[in-house]
Amino acid sequence: MSLRPAPLTGIRVLDLTRVLAGPWCTQNLADLGAEVIKIERPGAGDDTRGWGPPYIKDAQGRDTSEAAYYASANRNKQSVALDIATARGAELVRKLAGQCDILVENFKVGGLRKYGLDYESIKALNPALIYCSITGFGQTGPYANRPGYDFMIQGMGGLMSITGERDDLPGGGPQKAGVAVADLMTGMYATVGILAALHERSRSGLGQHIDMALLDCQVAMLANQNLNYMTTGQAPQRAGNAHQNLVPYQVFSAADGHLIVAVGNDGQFAAFCRVIGRPGLSEDVRFSTNSNRVINREVLVPMLVEAMKTQSRDYWLRELEQVGVPAGPINTIDQVYEDPQVKWRGMQQMLPHATAGEAPVGASPLRFSDSPVSYRHAAPLLGEHTRQVLRDRLGLSDQEIEELTR
């Protein structure tokens, strides 16, 4: 069976983003086959180029100049080093925008207007362009001009109030997530919005402006916790590894380690009780339904904790799997990449890299039967594709490129 080209083959993206939320979005588009032209500051580039160590290593195991952080969000892109603060640089970027389907930027509100690269200016050149702006707080509102960073957005948006151990237990207090989830979720929402606008353009022939805010996305992704608050008027609190709406759904200590048990319904709870040798618990009216288990959590959980200490982690994992009760280990990241399922799904790829020879990347989770994700090359060197893009896309001569370089 012959495969079809990646879904966004033929779509061109102008990437004026740096750090994580914007680059995560444009990397998604690149993985889906789009041609992504990333504009970077000459001599410095994306801020995250300097966010090391660690750095990508070459075939001899020596550090290259390429930070792992930058490499995590910029594969499959072309890097063009242009200074938009100069008239000539801004002019060239505008010309590129005139040839693109999508532009993604994360400058401060109004920051691109003085270069003629704001939405209204580019719309006049290319009415079909889909222009996505990513900021901390959006294009409107009292905070619109404030800078916004993932860490502070996790705090402002409520995530840190429900993440971490309970305040009355050792180690309790506000805790951020282990990765920049506000940035990443904004990048994902931006991707969804762009693809929706691309589909709408197929009907209208027109582009539009997409206004993405980290705070909006952080508040939206509170999901069930939003409705827990809205339906009760009570703000959910930190619950450690427990679940606000399901019991038992938490970490347990076994005789030799820890595991997660995630009981999602009453049938699973009955099976769980049989495995741990406490079948009567599932017949007790206090615990027979999930709603009663949530209400009587403080009575039930200590009994389960004691029972789980009697066998090893692997014993529980094996026995619970046999009866269909969701359970799993708590892996370190090195253990993640040794997991047979993760290996089978190809979640680590090696891609060609200009200085390292090849470099590792975390794979896209998207799986298409007939038009798969496209892995072409690892994150580019700063300005690696400047000459190629200026020559092939804008028709500049070698002499013009030399003059621009000087």
UniProtKB/TrEMBL annotation:
Which of UniProt's keywords are assigned here?
Transferase
Instruction: Give an example GO molecular function.
Output: CoA-transferase activity
Classification via Pfam families: CoA_transf_3 (PF02515)
**What SUPFAM superfamilies does the record tag this protein with?**
CoA-transferase family III (CaiB/BaiF)
Recorded hits in InterPro entries, A to Z, give:
CoA-transferase_III_domain (IPR050483), CoA-Trfase_fam_III (IPR003673), CoA-Trfase_III_dom3_sf (IPR044855), CoA-Trfase_III_dom_1_sf (IPR023606)
> Which residue spans traverse the membrane?
none
Annotated PANTHER family: SUCCINATE--HYDROXYMETHYLGLUTARATE COA-TRANSFERASE
Q: What is this protein called?
A: CoA transferase
Q: What is the lineage of its organism?
A: Bacteria, Pseudomonadati, Pseudomonadota, Betaproteobacteria, Burkholderiales
